[in-house]
């Protein structure tokens, strides 16, 4: 069976660098950090007091205030990014769109942690009667997809993938396969997260995973830099509209890029500590899926979290996957500006990879003050300044706890 071609026709974005695609992309190219002191709750007793919070976000632009009160923040972000992507693709203007052939797959790595945390407090203070009837549906991960499908009337495959920090990439790749093999003609796909809470920040801090550069938040996320001391948590959502090529072409849709490859793998090594072989295998699996050679890739939007072990490990994985061509790659970490969106990371970073292709420019990796060459971080990371360059093929890497890996490959059309 020959696979159908899959293209990207819509983009949606909510993140610390901006609440829409245009704002976020402009801030990335200018090297503007979205990371600051946490404003949402008291942090004076916490080791980590910084995060990439979404600011000035108004969910009532997308749904009513009454509906919004019934769901956790990660669902707000996913709905907003999903509806942005649908609008950008112009799906509402398609006459006689067969909505039984349109599906949604917007996942999350953690889901409704703040709502769970707050509801537990209410339970302890006032007993079971304080638990609201919307607590369960307000915190379930697949409810992003559920709400988007209900709002738009989409009746195709609707579900939500959960695979830690690889969620967004897995959601987009799996949605692409739904189209390739004929289960849908259009999929709205990506990832969302909203886990900036005392429990979320405290939990990652207890693992010694977070940066504690509390006195200088804007420079705290510094992938591949000698001074990196952990990742900074971010929040938000990134969603794309994927569409079968002939379906998109027939309606005259704008095509940003083609999704040509998707690769997955497992480290089978450790729940949190990475190894290089697993991520490298995910990349080579994606290249095989795309029918491409390693030397055809120009740009990598890396997982690049700013952890001492993870950054060096990803560099080694790229060397394993690309061989000598790794030295010719442009490797960028937009987490230097957004922080790590966990289950939303693969979604927003897919959006950034597609925009890099579309506009032929790589965003910078900011805060790269002294590259950790001695520590093995010795590739071209687009330090501190955006770079115009020819990009025909871009990949986006995502890796998650449990040793799960995902790689997406996008190509200019």
From TrEMBL:
One biological process term in Gene Ontology: fatty acid biosynthetic process
Gene field: fabF
Enzyme Commission number: 2.3.1.179
GO cellular component: cytosol
Active-site residues annotated for this sequence: 165 (for beta-ketoacyl synthase activity)
InterPro entries: 3-oxoacyl-ACP_synth-2, Beta-ketoacyl_synthase, Ketoacyl_synth_AS, Ketoacyl_synth_C, Ketoacyl_synth_N, PKS_Beta-ketoAc_synthase_dom, Thiolase-like
Stored SMART domains: PKS_KS (SM00825)
Gene Ontology molecular-function annotations: 3-oxoacyl-[acyl-carrier-protein] synthase activity
This protein's name: 3-oxoacyl-[acyl-carrier-protein] synthase 2
Matches recorded under Pfam families: ketoacyl-synt, Ketoacyl-synt_C
Pathway participation: Lipid metabolism; fatty acid biosynthesis
């Amino acid at each position: 069976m020959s696979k159908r071609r899959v293209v990207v026709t819509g983009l949606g974005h909510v993140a610390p660098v901006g609440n829409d695609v245009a704002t976020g992309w402009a801030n990335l190219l200018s090297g503007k950090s979205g990371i600051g002191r946490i404003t949402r709750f008291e942090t004076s007793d916490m080791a980590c007091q910084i995060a990439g919070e979404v600011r000035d976000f108004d969910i009532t632009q997308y749904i009513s205030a009454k509906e919004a009160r019934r769901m956790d923040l990660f669902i707000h972000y996913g709905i907003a990014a999903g509806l942005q992507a649908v609008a950008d693709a112009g799906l509402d203007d398609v006459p006689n769109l067969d909505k039984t052939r349109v599906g949604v797959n917007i996942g999350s790595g953690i889901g409704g942690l703040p709502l769970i945390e707050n509801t537990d407090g209410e339970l302890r203070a006032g007993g079971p009667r304080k638990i609201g009837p919307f607590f369960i549906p307000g915190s379930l991960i697949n409810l992003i997809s559920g709400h988007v499908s209900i709002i738009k009337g989409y009746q195709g495959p609707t579900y939500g993938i959960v695979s830690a920090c690889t969620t967004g990439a897995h959601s987009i790749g799996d949605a692409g396969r739904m189209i390739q093999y004929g289960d849908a003609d259009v999929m709205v796909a990506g990832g969302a997260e909203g886990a900036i809470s005392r429990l979320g920040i405290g939990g990652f801090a207890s693992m010694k995973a977070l940066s504690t550069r509390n006195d200088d938040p804007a420079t705290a996320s510094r992938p591949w830099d000698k001074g990196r001391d952990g990742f900074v948590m971010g929040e938000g959502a990134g969603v794309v509209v994927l569409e079968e090529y002939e379906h998109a072409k027939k309606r005259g849709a704008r095509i940003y890029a083609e999704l040509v490859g998707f690769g997955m793998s497992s480290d089978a090594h450790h729940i949190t500590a990475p190894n290089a072989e697993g991520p490298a295998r995910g990349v080579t699996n994606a290249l095989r899926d795309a029918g491409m050679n390693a030397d055809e890739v120009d740009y990598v939007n890396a997982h690049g979290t700013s952890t001492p072990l993870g950054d060096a490990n990803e560099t080694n994985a790229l060397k394993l996957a690309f061989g000598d061509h790794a030295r010719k790659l442009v490797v960028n970490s937009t987490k230097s500006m957004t922080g790590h969106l966990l289950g939303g990371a693969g979604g927003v970073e897919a959006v950034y990879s597609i925009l890099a292709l579309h506009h032929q420019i790589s965003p910078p990796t900011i805060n790269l003050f002294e590259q950790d060459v001695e520590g093995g971080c010795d590739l071209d990371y687009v330090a501190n300044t955006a770079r115009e360059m020819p990009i025909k093929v871009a990949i986006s890497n995502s890796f998650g706890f449990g040793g799960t890996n995902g790689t997406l490959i996008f190509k200019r059309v």
